[in-house]
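Justification of resources, computational component.

The compute hours requested in this renewal are based largely on the per-chain cost of generating structure records like the one below. Each record pairs the submitted sequence with a full structure-token output. That output is archived, and it is also reused by downstream analysis tasks.
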Amino acid sequence: MSETKTNSNKEYVFLLFVSAQSILSIRAIKNCRMILEERLKDRYSLEIVDVYEHPDRIIEEQIITTPILIKKYPLPEIKITGDLNETARVIEELLI
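The structure output for this chain reads:
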């Protein structure tokens, strides 16, 4: 599973690392999409990366657990682990 909703003109760039079809990863994908659509509409790009399909990305991004959402841009880079079910906390931590 590698999925990208991307456009180079987006104001926010996110990576979501997941582990195949684990329950936590499925929830994280759903919650992430909901939060980003609600808060940012068409102003973001989201790349969903399955660590089993792209193990090289684990090293590149220094991933030690999944699921993990990374806000790459705008800086500062922010990482949030878990299924992202605490919407208010996710919004606060991502500064969105």
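Residues 2-94 form a domain with the Glutaredoxin fold (CATH 3.40.30.10). The chain has a mean pLDDT of 92.
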